[in-house]
Amino acid sequence: MDGDRAGELLLEACLFQGGIRCLCVKTKTVYIQHPFLFKHACEYLLKENKDSECEKLGLDAISVLPDNLIIRVDIADLTARASINLKHLEVAYKCWEIAFFSDSTLNNYLRLFELPNYDNITKKAAKFVETLIENFDGNISNNNKQMRKIVFLEMIKILLSFLMECMIIFMKNVKRTIIT
User: Hey, what CATH class is 2-179 in?
Assistant: First the structure.
């Protein structure tokens, strides 16, 4: 929790001293300790209709933050919104894919079906979830919210395995229905 409070104080100090510009500059230097500053900077830029700056900062954040930080999902979602506003659909699609691989939830998985090449990506996503299940080490820690990583409990692993099997059966039946 101390890291969260320090990050909040840094956020307030940046906004007080120099506004969103100061926050954007500071974010790039302290992202290792306070990755959630990227999220807040993107939120502020999006609220101020500075979509191109939000998209650029979000893509920068996604490229430097570790893949398993859940905060990447929020940043990817904000970046996708800015990209959609700018009509950069390919960037938005990439952000949705990144969101799934950073936090493999059912909602993020279902959103992949909106992508033009969803068939390849959903197959890749299904294989990725299987590796998460196989490689789960049971490490559940980090009280510091901004540094939370993807973790799976045993029941979630079983449920994901079941859902993936159901999704495969569903997709096979959908293909048969469309063909006939």
Answer: mainly alpha
